Amino acid sequence: MHEARSRRIRPHLDDKVLTSWNGLMISALARAGRALDEPRYAGAAGRAARFLLTHARTPEGRLLHRWRDGDAAVPAFLDDYAFLIDGLIELYQTDFDPAWFGEAVRLQKIQDDLFADGDGGGYFFTDGTDRTLQGRQRTFTDSVEPSGNSVSALNLLRLSALTGDPHLQKRADGIFEAAAPLVARAPTLSHRCSRRSITRSTAPRISPWRGSRTTRWRASWCGPCNRASTRTSLSPPGFPMRPGRPPC
If DSSP codes are grouped into helix, strand and coil, which group holds residue 246? Predict the structure, then answer.
């Protein structure tokens, strides 16, 4: 059968690299590496993140949607930012490299500047630079892929808890309020926003740890519980933190 099939004309190979899809993959690998204590998964997530941050960005730091054969093009959409930020936060929670955390914060600032709906809350899918579009879509529906808004809501909650910035919490609340009509009418269409809107008040307050320089608590977000748990390390670099509640 293989010999007969090899004589057929092969279909075209889709070998493009999409920032959004790779962001989902980075998040999954980082969480798997953390849960299974498998450094190969975390290492693969880190290599993919470094590739995107190096090759799928403009000189000004904005993301690009796709890379193929050495060429990166197309201004990134909301999903590209939201999914990659999610992956970077998961990476930070896995290996506590402050570089991932710093990149997540920087990309979140760019996302806010480009996509935020200042009037209705949440984020538009496009950045508004393409004047040929009749309008800017804003969606909260989770389908085969989660919506950029629902992923952004969790990103903002975690970044707010880790940085102590209340403005990020307010922006997350804006997403929940904008999604509320859809959640009330059909909660399964936006199940992430449904779950987060119920549990967002449980997000912990995290403050810098000023205790021993030998052992410090560091925050790690527990996705299933929607709260921060703790982890210890010996003199870790970067962002030593402790949560205001016991670990999961």
Answer: coil
